[in-house]
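@here heads up, posting the sequence + SMILES for the manganese (II) ion run so it's all in one place. Ping me if the SMILES looks off, I pulled it from an old spreadsheet.
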Amino acid sequence: MGCDQTLKGLGYRLTPQRIMVVEALHGADEHVSAEEIYTQVKARYPYANISTVYRTLELLKELGLVTETDLGDGRVRYHPAEKGHHHHLVCHKCGKIIDLPESALFHLEETLSRDYRFQPDLKHLAIFGVCADCQK
Amino acid sequence: MGCDQTLKGLGYRLTPQRIMVVEALHGADEHVSAEEIYTQVKARYPYANISTVYRTLELLKELGLVTETDLGDGRVRYHPAEKGHHHHLVCHKCGKIIDLPESALFHLEETLSRDYRFQPDLKHLAIFGVCADCQK
DNA sequence: AAAATTATTGCAACTGCTTGCACCAACAAC
DNA sequence: GTTGTTGGTGCAAGCAGTTGCAATAATTTT
Ligand SMILES: [Mn+2]
Ligand SMILES: [Mn+2]
Ligand SMILES: [Zn+2]
Ligand SMILES: [Zn+2]
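bot reply: prediction finished. Complex structure tokens:
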């Protein structure tokens, strides 16, 4: 089931603005910024406002339909949950971004769950550090 | 060796503003915000500017003398490296903050280092999720 | 001690993102 | 279909943090 029907099913109103945000989100490549989504939405409906984009992303986030990740450039990036989960290693020397499978954090999740009864919410994490090439 | 002498030793100028930022940082409890540091500095030197505070914190961060952590309220928090390393579990239902010893992430660090030759920079991480009390 | 050099500061403008509020439109009740 | 309710939107102002630039002051050279 898509984002639209989930929203509707949970009693949220399915406005044209929300539909356009969801479409822009799914159409763009992963790691889209709010500004990029706003640009796309505005092309279709010039009265659209960026705060509506942020509010829609916030809602989708609360419902677990998108993840939000700070990859270290000055803006936050969004990723639809439907496209699958993974994480990233971000080199703060050269800026390189390495993909990390979801499973790389399973052990940590288990530890936190077992030892602290804490259920971590690790869906699209960015871990900063130094990549192999930049270590010498 | 304190922050002041480290700065001086690396060729950075030891200005009154920097000294006051470092003193405020060490005097306050851990998890100080830039605004709180600014308030303290301004009480001693009213001409002080908040961008100088931010620039000093940025420099100390680059040198590994402070860590910066987003604990989920709207502002970033700073912690002097001298006071020791640890991490936090942050419940985004009730806001509770649980301390996590440095060692809890050693296994992850080893995995990333071994499998990806990536040296993660995990000095004062905040992991968001749901605490034991909020899981029912 | 004075002059020269250049890192650092204060200021104002700017960025990404959030929020209060009046107006509007999606959906439900009739 | 019309009316009413209430959640959602647009707008403008606000907040945390950053940045360009001219003035200033810490340090070096003479
Ligand atoms: Mn990704
Ligand atoms: Mn801490
Ligand atoms: Zn690198
Ligand atoms: Zn909790």
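MO: The helical segments of chain A are 3-9, 16-27, 34-44, 50-62, 106-116.
MO: One more: The pocket of zinc ion (ligand 4) is lined by residues B 91, 93-94, 96, 131, 133-134 (CB under 6 Å).
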